[in-house]
TrEMBL record:
It comes from Falsiroseomonas frigidaquae. InterPro entries: UCP012641, Zinc-ribbon_6_bact. Residues 5-89 form the Zinc-ribbon domain. It comes from the Bacteria. This is Zinc-ribbon domain-containing protein.
Length: 343
């Protein structure tokens, strides 16, 4: 994520802001520019001096994206991916849905920065609330149709699920990045003719998926996966290994862009023989994977150290082994060298 600032007063802004806390001007994100813009007294975007119109979900406080005034669409590129939203006449659903949309907009920002396609009818999202008398909604994917249980936007419920499933890390944005990764397997691997390369690293994805997941959940917690996989769930099936690594790759580039925007320099002492130093002054969206990995290790050490100072769990409870780094490198390659880019 870039560091954002108000064009009127220079105040630092967050991606989700709708008004500047310092000067009071209204704000809106312009997806074509990838930046927040303040709006002047005449309603013109100060970023480009042009009139804009709000996404239809701005009125529901579920979006802060704006479109060109003459755009034929009523919804922004993120909101128009919605296939189904929960019943908003139920007051308890509205704040949870807003959190869903916030996470999805962050996802779309990163996909745009990576120039990954997400337009068209294939990729779509359904955010579903549990209904009385019906089985709980299952988060999952089906050929680009991504379903996220609305309950995942409830912090207490999501933490309960994380604990029950013995997961070190579970976030709403992480769900979005993981599930969209399954669709990008179709786009970046299967349709691009990279299946053999994929299998050399991740394994044979043609093995029975349902049986593999059933076996995974039947096994008691263990550490057999460590070293070859980024998480225990990644060891369940090659498709899940890919999706976990894809989500992880998005975590990395987004976090590194934010750290770079702040001009962070980190000097963690790794052992008595030396210091690993890195100055984060590069774009992870244009860098090679080796540069990304070299910067990521000291940044995560710093992030975890800061969390421990505040008495909270490690922000980054993962270890990047050599096999995992190779898988991430493959994802970096297929993202940046796609047939549709002529590379």
């Amino acid at each position: 994520m870039r560091l954002l600032a108000c064009q009127n007063c220079g105040n630092l802004l967050h991606f989700e802001n709708t008004a500047c806390e310092k000067c009071g001007l209204s704000l809106g994100f312009l997806p074509e520019a990838g930046r927040l813009s303040a709006f002047d007294a005449d309603g013109l975007a100060m970023l480009d001096g042009k009139p804009k119109k709000p996404c239809a979900n701005v009125a529901k406080e579920a979006c802060n994206w704006f479109l060109p005034e003459d755009d034929a669409e009523d919804y922004c590129p993120a909101c128009r991916l919605n296939s189904m939203v929960p019943d908003l006449s139920m007051p308890e659903n509205l704040p949870l849905w807003r959190r869903m949309e916030m996470a999805k907009r962050r996802l779309i920002y990163t996909l745009d920065r990576l120039r990954l396609p997400h337009e068209g009818p294939e990729l779509r999202f359904s955010f579903l609330a549990d209904l009385d008398g019906e089985p709980p909604t299952m988060t999952g994917h089906d050929e680009g149709h991504i379903t996220i249980a609305l309950a995942e936007a409830d912090d207490a419920e999501r933490e309960a699920r994380r604990t029950r499933l013995n997961e070190p890390f579970r976030t709403l944005l992480g769900h979005m990045r993981h599930e969209v990764g399954h669709w990008y397997f179709l786009v970046l691997v299967e349709r691009a003719g990279r299946t053999d390369d994929f299998r050399a690293l991740f394994g044979d994805e043609s093995q029975d998926y349902a049986a593999a997941l059933q076996a995974h959940y039947a096994r008691p917690p263990n550490n057999d996966w460590r070293g070859d996989y980024i998480s225990a769930y990644a060891a369940a099936h090659p498709h899940e290994d890919w999706a976990e690594c894809f989500a992880h790759y998005l975590h990395m580039v987004d976090s590194l862009e934010m750290a770079t925007s702040f001009g962070m320099t980190i000097n963690p002492v790794l052992d008595r023989d030396g210091v690993l130093e890195t100055e984060l002054d590069f774009s992870p969206y244009r860098a090679g994977m080796e540069e990304i990995l070299n910067a990521w290790t000291p940044l995560t050490i710093a992030m975890n150290a800061m969390n421990r100072c505040m008495g909270t769990p490690d922000l980054y409870p993962f270890v990047l082994s050599a096999p995992v780094a190779r898988k991430l490198g493959f994802i970096h390659e297929v993202v940046h060298h796609r047939p549709d880019q002529g590379q």
